[in-house]
Amino acid sequence: LNHVAYLAKLSPIVLQALPAGLTGFCQLANYRQGRLILALSNQAVVTKFRFILPSVLQSLRRQPVFAGLVG
After folding, report:
1. Is 52 helix (H, G, I), strand (E, B) or coil?
2. Which residues contact 13 (CB under 8 A, 6 or more apart)?
3. Angle, alpha carbons 69-16-9 (nearest 5°)
4. pTM (predicted TM-score)
5. pLDDT at 1 over 70
6. Quick check: 41 and 26 in contact, CB under 8 A?
7. In the chain, which residue ranges form alpha helices assigned H by DSSP?
8. How far apart are CA 41 and CA 66, in angstroms?
9. Which pLDDT score, from 0 to 100, does residue 31 have?
10. What is the pLDDT of residue 71?
11. Are 35 and 71 in contact (CB under 8 A)?
12. HSE of 48 in the Cβ direction (CA atoms, 13 Å)?
């Protein structure tokens, strides 16, 4: 599985962990060595995301593929 296909497989899992109002503004950019990188569409989304980050991380870590997620 190449890296792009791997990210395409992970993207729905990441989007599922986000509140519905943010999914259209977030995109999985990369996941490597336990580090998840999301592209967020604007500063307002970044600000909202900072508030929900702990719960998103907790939700993602329940998924076996993200068990080693750092942050």
Report:
1. helix
2. 60, 63, 65, 66
3. 70
4. 0.89
5. no
6. yes
7. 3-16, 43-61
8. 23
9. 96
10. 76
11. yes
12. 14
Q: Do residues 26 and 15 touch, judged by C-beta distance below 8 A?
A: yes
Residue 10 to residues 7, 65, 69, Cα–Cα distance (Å)? 5, 8, 13
Structure tokens at 28: 């999985």
Q: Distance (Å, rounded) from C-alpha 19 to C-alpha 24?
A: 10
Q: What is the pLDDT of residues 2-58, one digit of tens each?
A: 999 999 999 999 999 999 999 999 999 999 999 999 999 999 999 999 999 999 999
Cα angle at 4 between 11 and 10, to 5 degrees?
20
Chain length of the chain: 71
Angle value at C-alpha 39, between 43 and 42, nearest 5 degrees: 20
